[in-house]
Write a structure and sequence with these properties.
Largest sheet: 6 strands, mixed
Order of helices and strands: HEEEEEEEEEEEEEEE
Distance between the termini: 48 Å
CATH topology: Immunoglobulin-like
Number of helices: 1
InterPro entries: DUF4232
Organism: Streptomyces graminofaciens
Keywords: Signal
Pfam families: DUF4232
Protein name: DUF4232 domain-containing protein
Length: 186
Amino acid sequence: MRTAPIAAASILLAALALTACSSDSGGDGGSGSGNDTPASEKKDTGTACKASALTIAFGPSSAAPAAGDEGAVPVTLTNEKGTACTLKGFAAVHLSGGGDSWGLKSQEGAQAAELTLAKGQSASFTISYVRGVAGDSAKSAELEEVVFKLPDDSETKTYKWPDAEVELKSVDRISATVGPFLPVGD
């Protein structure tokens, strides 16, 4: 049974506030983002990449064709400033729809990378998911939005969810994970 709808914006803001920091550990695909080290306890490793200094390309997705199939939505980040910046940890990603919100864990076994992006360099991360059963609210979440935040950045970015419904594992878990930052190109 789904929880009573609550204002999606309030849920997203509260969830993002709880996952504003990052860690290098993987997750199990449940709610939360795999980010459990408070920012005040982290070591400063240089200038963190900020969304405001990056060009962000959301998608195009590799949509799952049928229920039970896997799909993926890539997010590509390009440093447009002259100053190098660093991505470390995982992006804090939340998916929402119908008044519900789910925070994503990192992909099982994924190791957080530390990437430094010079001007013009790019990195990406992927939101992977399992497609749910269309029209079955007990087995699927009809998603509307993706909200994410980079490690050590307070700015959130919101995009329309581009694919079909996502499989529900339980009322508070969906079959979706976030991958590590990977370099793009040479």
